[in-house]
Design brief:
Number of helices: 11
Order of helices and strands: HHHHHHHHHHH
Number of domains: 1
Number of strands: 0
Strand content: under 5%
């Protein structure tokens, strides 16, 4: 019993360490890129005033392209690190394929498609509701997306590569990988799903984005539990982000239609979860609330 408790306790730091490490790596990459920008500007500047020189440096560093490069570098380094930690600590040095986890590929693919589309609408309506209640949250979110070059009108190819490819891979290894598997070693599965979703939301460092990331994290955490394979959650996360940079048609022009559209998106999301559960060969009926 004592040995079991000791084994569980050693996983507790890994619930929080991935998030901390990701922030440290992001900060380190940002500092390195800032230094490179300074060196470049120093080699070409004709200004003798230090304040003017630093203003140029900050202006270049704050550009959407520079932020995109920082994001790509951070995501690449973090994804590799988390892959190594996840594989060696929770996968016995290897990553399994998906073949044995699926008993019906057609139902699984349909469930994934419905989940991706419905969660887009769930988060859109959630964001609209929160923006109406807290306008300052919307202003903060819009300022963040514009500064990062993530708004649909100005998004760059580099930022698309981050948002659609490397970003989802990195975040899935952090939260549905190391964080989730560490949490499920020390707590019931439903709490493990909740904890990784909370950390996933908090990691976005923005109230509006944090709330909908938390909701998405709940769904992705449960799907990770269903299939025990990051391939599924990575593909879903990639597709979700890809659709997110597009302008989706949405109803809800008045209170009644807004409520009905929100309810419909939740119903479809629930149906998608049922389909995904039925196509999984990993989880058995009644296992969720007894699994630790």
């Amino acid at each position: 019993m004592n040995q079991t408790n000791t084994d569980r306790r050693k996983h507790i730091p890994w619930i929080f360490l991935p998030t901390v490490l990701a922030m440290v790596i992001q900060t380190a990459v940002a500092i390195i890129v800032m230094q490179l920008v300074m060196v470049r500007e120093f080699s070409i500047t004709t200004k003798s005033d230090y304040a003017d020189f630093m203003l140029d440096v900050v202006h270049k560093y704050s550009s959407a392209d520079c932020i995109a490069v920082v994001s790509l570098m951070y995501a690449l380094v973090t994804a590799i690190l988390m892959l190594v930690i996840f594989r060696n600590t929770y996968r016995d040095g290897k990553l399994a394929g998906l073949k044995m986890q699926v008993n019906n590929w057609g139902i699984m693919i349909l469930g994934m498609v419905l989940f991706i589309v419905s969660m887009q609408y769930v988060t859109v309506y959630l964001m609209n509701a929160l923006a109406s209640a807290f306008p300052a949250w919307l202003e903060e979110y819009q300022a963040l997306t514009e500064a990062a070059g993530l708004d649909a009108e100005h998004i760059s190819p580099i930022m698309i590569a981050y948002a659609v490819l490397l970003g989802p891979i990195c975040e899935e290894f952090i939260f549905r990988g190391v964080t989730f598997f560490a949490a499920r070693k020390v707590m019931p599965i439903h709490f493990a799903i909740l904890v990784q979703a909370i950390l996933f939301g908090a990691f976005h460092m923005n109230k509006l984005q944090g709330v909908y990331a938390f909701v998405l994290g709940l769904g992705l955490g449960y799907i990770m539990y269903l299939y025990d394979n990051l391939i599924v959650t990575i593909v879903i996360h990639m597709a979700y982000n890809m659709i997110g940079v597009m302008d989706l048609p949405a109803g809800g022009d008045n209170l009644i239609t807004f409520f009905l559209c929100s309810l419909a998106s939740l119903v479809v999301a629930y149906i998608s979860i049922i389909l995904l559960r039925n196509s999984s060969s990993v989880v058995k009926d009644g296992q969720f609330f007894s699994d630790i």
